[in-house]
Design goal:
By secondary structure, this protein is α/β, with parallel strands linked by helices. It has one domain: Alpha/Beta hydrolase fold, catalytic domain (Rossmann fold, 3-Layer(aba) Sandwich). It is about 30% helix and about 20% strand. The chain contains twelve helices and 13 strands. It has a nine-stranded mixed beta sheet, sandwiched between helices. β6, α4 and β7 form a beta-alpha-beta unit. α3 crosses α4, α5 runs antiparallel to α9 and α6 packs across α7. The longest helix is centred in the middle third of the chain and has 19 residues. The chain is globular and about 60 Å long. The N and C termini lie far apart (about 40 Å).
């Protein structure tokens, strides 16, 4: 069942018709890593770009499937002095998160984060975590998905073993690692476990530790609540249908009354869409975000978002995973609640760090986690008025995200 889902995922609706089935004559690189089985490989080109997609099984458990996509210029610039980068998606996302363009539906791949990085000479490796391969309604009975109970940071880091080996097939330089939100958070967990295996850590509004005692207490409550839910058999949460419904109602009937009960009577679908994106977080334990954080900066009374592209947000909402593993939220909340499992060894990481911080997102929380590392080479850019997702959802992402990332890879990371 998951193989069929992967084949559909590999060419999501926002990319249909874009990719040529013609592979380069050399074919995709092969890699053999003990304990990992490659289920399928596809190799496609789209104009100047090449996309090699792997479906991989970790161990003997057939449910432990994850995806890897390698996106680069075609032909691949093997031997480039620029280090490759491994990017993980935010919560509920997959490789498709980095492949959305700016046009409605995201079909202009050449304007995606992955394509802009590749145009800059970066060999980009994208991971789709295991919950990307849960099919709709597969976990309607939570007991049927009990295998997902341990799909947290440790599983993510384990899957990265294969990706590092894949990178090493064509690169003598170690990769940088990171990503947006959860992507950078998993980057912290990865360098915590393997501090000398990565040449750089790229954080895009990501944090995994706090010294604020009040905030820590809130996250500890969220941690305990999530642990209890998992112990009771609630191993996944429905993710994409809710996001998609907000988007679809706003697009199809913006002036109609919203069916969501959390909004006052008379709230339209358009107003509910904007309120969902821009309402400040109450903080943990009622939210995974700190108090006052917003998803994107904007105003419902002004009927607009200040920085984000609605086209990009809508494409994301319609292509996110159906489910998200609760173990991911547990590990995030428990770490910010004081559990040192995924930060205790960060002082051994001494390589460069790039921190792109959204002032109205996780913001300066990243600084507390960075302070635990042994890095003396930290480049930080603060976008004071950005909400948590504005960095990736602005149509100007090439300037505020990809450009500083490429400059950092060339200037700081390439020496490793």
């Amino acid at each position: 069942m998951r193989l069929g889902h992967w084949l559909g995922f590999a060419l999501p609706c926002l990319m249909v018709g874009a990719w040529s089935a013609t592979a380069e004559a050399a074919g995709p690189p092969t890699v053999s890593v003990p304990g990992f089985s490659i289920v399928s490989v596809t190799d496609q080109t789209n104009g100047a770009f090449r996309d090699i997609q792997y479906l991989v099984q970790n161990g003997s458990d057939p449910t432990s499937l994850f995806g890897v996509e390698r996106i680069s210029l075609a032909p691949i610039p093997i031997g480039s002095f620029l280090p490759p980068i491994i990017l993980e998606p935010p919560l509920g996302g997959s490789a498709a998160f980095y492949k959305r363009g700016n046009a409605p539906g995201g079909a202009d791949f050449q304007n995606s984060i992955a394509a802009v990085l590749a145009t800059g000479g970066v060999d980009v490796y994208l991971i789709s975590f295991r919950d990307s391969f849960l099919t709709p309604n597969e976990c309607a009975s939570q007991g049927s998905c009990a295998f997902a109970a341990n799909w947290g940071f440790s599983a993510f880091v384990s899957d990265l073993t294969f990706i590092r080996a894949l990178v090493a097939v064509d690169h003598t330089k170690q990769p940088a690692i990171g990503g947006a939100s959860l992507g950078g958070i998993v980057g912290f967990a990865a360098v915590n476990q393997n501090p000398t295996d990565y040449a750089g850590l790229a954080l895009m509004d990501s944090a995994l530790w706090t010294t604020d005692t009040t905030l820590r207490a809130g996250y500890e409550q969220l941690c305990l609540g999530t642990e209890a839910a998992i112990a009771a058999g609630q191993v996944v949460s429905v993710f994409e249908p809710l996001e998609a419904e907000f988007v679809e109602l706003e697009l199809q009937n913006p002036n109609g009354p919203t069916p969501f009960p959390q909004f006052p009577a008379g709230t339209t679908n358009r107003q509910a869409y904007l309120l969902q994106l821009t309402t400040p977080s109450p903080g943990p334990p009622n939210s995974i975000f700190p108090p006052g954080a917003v998803g994107v900066a904007g105003s419902e009374p002004q009927n607009r978002l200040f920085f984000a592209s609605e086209s990009r947000i809508n494409a994301k909402g319609l292509t996110d995973n159906f489910y998200a593993a609760n173990a991911i939220v547990r590990d995030f909340a428990c770490s910010l609640g004081g559990d040192e499992t995924f930060v205790a060894n960060l002082n051994q990481y001494t390589r460069p760090i790039l921190a792109l911080e959204d002032g109205k997102g996780l913001g300066s929380l990243a600084d507390s986690t960075i302070a635990l590392t042994g890095s003396k080479d930290v480049d930080k850019i603060v976008y004071a008025n950005f909400g948590h997702s504005d960095l990736t959802e602005t149509p100007l992402h090439a300037a505020v995200l990809e450009a500083p990332t490429i400059a950092w890879l060339y200037g700081d990371v390439a020496k490793f």
